[in-house]
């Protein structure tokens, strides 16, 4: 339920969610968090009261491990209080700890609660601005498409009367662009003489992307004042910058608890002393040790198999007072990559997360989008660490494979059809982030492009993706900010994209370049016998086969929408 509420906060368009509803959702999440931890504390108290019933035959202490798909619950009770106690490993979970002598002889219990979700990080991080796409429901979408086909002249007249419609921008209080609404797509199409009325109607239906409910929304998740406050706080080098690093693999709640009075068997009766406070934390370091540094606790965590750590993770502790992740208080970190474990020492018992640079897979080394059948395509994004393949079919997409060091990984999330929004969430949770966020440009060497050129290029590419393959070009970096360059090839059969051509597009003008990928220098010189066109579709039509054009004109608008969402989410023209 908490995940559903967070998804609603992330995915609902700002104009459909009132401030009151947002506050209600956030309060509900906090209440559910508290309820969940009350349940865990209740289960902990019940187990500890009957700890002597679960006594381990070898050590004389109590241990238990309870696991499900979302939680691993490990509890250990120090029943024998042996001064020679060294460490303990929960065999079923491979988590472990080593206690200082003062704790080894105390009535203490240690709990490691691993939740595979993160409900600790602040909500401003979980709901921070990312590109979002909204789609009209099917009835509105169908009616809107019909209206555009039946009354093309009226709509063109409306566009001419409202020259400000093509791009609308709203500004946040800090001056950032927050919304770009593309309400027209055929500004140059009217200049092209179509051969038949039927063809004109087809183009109107296919090329008018807004009639299919696609538009881009950049939200401001925090105000200027909040941003300035956070940036000022992050000058403390011990505070983790959550614009750059993200928790991966969930959260580990590591607690020392006071061992409650144990159950005593008297004849046929089981008797236990009841305490009013419930389960209580064991104070460590003790208050009297303020002037001295007590020995640290050593913790070993077995990392989950369902996430990827491409580099040594950053170990951080949660600071509830400051509502932030911090790295101070943690030392002597050892990361064993083959064993997938990390060992570290900490001065007290903390809630721990393993964080990873959200941008280590950016910029991409290459990308490619190619059709595989009617209304089907494959998007391949190659990064320094991984090659990610996403299959598209109709109105859904699927993670086909993630290859790291020539090995297929993350098999638990591959082969499942889902929406682009869900796929993005699943991949980011698994530690594979190929989706730039609001702050990504601060941490990645970005190939900056004008929004008009970049977004309209994604729209035009999506329109013809059923018959044409697109790929990365090194000349995109040399083309300047106002235009994008990419490779294009007609692709109707397997291995039919060997004849690549270079195209340049600035959002209003498309042209075929004379240079090739292997040319020595960049040039904007046109290919011989080619002309400028206002759209990529009409540019490609000059040299395309009839079969390719037929495919483009009959492509499903839902397929076009999914391709567009994925291109916009990955931003391959800017982050490659």
From TrEMBL:
<dbReference type="InterPro" id="IPR031826">
    <property type="entry name" value="IC97/Casc1_N"/>
</dbReference>
<feature type="domain" description="IC97/Casc1 N-terminal">
    <location>
        <begin position="1"/>
        <end position="84"/>
    </location>
</feature>
<dbReference type="GO" id="GO:0048487">
    <property type="term" value="F:beta-tubulin binding"/>
</dbReference>
<protein>
    <recommendedName>
        <fullName>Dynein axonemal intermediate chain 7</fullName>
    </recommendedName>
</protein>
<dbReference type="Pfam" id="PF15927">
    <property type="entry name" value="Casc1_N"/>
</dbReference>
<comment type="similarity">
    <text>Belongs to the DNAI7 family.</text>
</comment>
<dbReference type="GO" id="GO:0005930">
    <property type="term" value="C:axoneme"/>
</dbReference>
<dbReference type="InterPro" id="IPR023247">
    <property type="entry name" value="IC97/Dnai7-like"/>
</dbReference>
<feature type="region of interest" description="Disordered">
    <location>
        <begin position="141"/>
        <end position="170"/>
    </location>
</feature>
<dbReference type="GO" id="GO:0008017">
    <property type="term" value="F:microtubule binding"/>
</dbReference>
């Amino acid at each position: 339920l908490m995940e559903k509420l967070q998804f609603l906060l992330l995915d609902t368009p700002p104009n459909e969610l009132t401030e009151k509803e947002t506050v209600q959702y956030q309060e509900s999440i906090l209440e559910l968090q508290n309820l969940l931890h009350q349940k865990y504390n209740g289960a902990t108290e019940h187990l500890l009261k009957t700890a002597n019933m679960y006594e381990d035959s070898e050590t004389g202490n109590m241990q238990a491990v309870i696991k499900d798909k979302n939680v691993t619950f490990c509890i250990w009770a120090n029943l024998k209080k042996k001064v020679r106690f060294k460490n303990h490993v929960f065999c079923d979970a491979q988590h472990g700890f080593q206690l200082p002598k003062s704790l080894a002889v105390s009535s203490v219990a240690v709990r490691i609660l691993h939740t595979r979700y993160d409900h600790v990080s602040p909500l401003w991080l979980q709901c921070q601005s990312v590109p979002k796409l909204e789609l009209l429901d099917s009835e509105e979408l169908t009616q809107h498409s019909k209206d555009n086909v039946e009354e093309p002249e009226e709509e063109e007249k409306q566009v001419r009367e409202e020259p400000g419609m093509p791009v609308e921008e709203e500004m946040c209080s800090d001056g950032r662009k927050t919304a770009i609404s593309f309400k027209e797509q055929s500004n140059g199409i009217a200049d092209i003489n179509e051969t038949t009325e039927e063809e004109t109607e087809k183009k109107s239906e296919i090329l008018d992307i807004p009639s299919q409910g696609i538009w881009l929304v950049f939200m401001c998740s925090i105000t200027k004042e909040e941003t300035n406050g956070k940036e000022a706080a992050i000058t403390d080098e011990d505070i983790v910058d959550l614009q750059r690093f993200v928790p991966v693999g969930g959260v580990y709640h590591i607690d020392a608890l006071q061992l409650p009075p144990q159950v005593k068997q008297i004849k046929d009766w089981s008797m236990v002393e009841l305490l009013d406070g419930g389960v209580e934390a064991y104070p460590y370091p003790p208050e009297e040790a303020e002037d001295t540094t007590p020995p640290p606790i050593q913790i070993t965590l077995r990392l989950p198999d369902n996430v990827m750590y491409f580099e040594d993770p950053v170990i951080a502790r949660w600071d509830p007072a400051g509502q932030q992740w911090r790295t101070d208080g943690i030392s002597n970190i050892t990361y064993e990559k083959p064993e997938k474990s990390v060992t570290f020492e900490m001065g007290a018992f903390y809630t721990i997360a393993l964080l990873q640079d959200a941008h280590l897979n950016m910029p991409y080394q290459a990308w490619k989008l190619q059709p595989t059948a009617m209304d089907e395509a494959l998007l391949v994004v190659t990064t320094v660490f991984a090659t990610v393949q996403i299959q598209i079919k109709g109105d859904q997409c699927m993670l086909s494979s993630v290859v790291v060091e020539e090995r297929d990984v993350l098999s638990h999330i591959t082969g499942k059809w889902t929406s682009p929004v869900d796929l993005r969430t699943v991949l980011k949770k698994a530690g594979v982030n190929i989706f730039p966020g609001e702050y990504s440009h601060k941490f990645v060497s970005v190939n900056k492009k004008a929004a008009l050129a970049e977004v309209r290029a994604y729209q035009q590419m999506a329109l013809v993706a059923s018959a044409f393959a697109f790929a990365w070009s090194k000349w995109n970096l040399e083309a300047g900010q106002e235009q994008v360059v990419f490779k294009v090839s007609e692709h109707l059969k397997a291995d039919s994209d060997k004849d690549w051509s270079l195209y340049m597009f600035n959002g209003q003008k498309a042209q075929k370049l004379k240079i090739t990928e292997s040319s020595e220098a960049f040039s904007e010189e046109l290919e011989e016998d080619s002309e400028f066109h206002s759209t990529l579709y009409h540019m490609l039509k000059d040299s395309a086969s009839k079969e390719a054009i037929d495919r483009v004109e009959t492509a499903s608008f839902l397929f076009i929408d999914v391709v567009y969402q994925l291109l916009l989410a990955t931003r391959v023209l800017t982050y490659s």
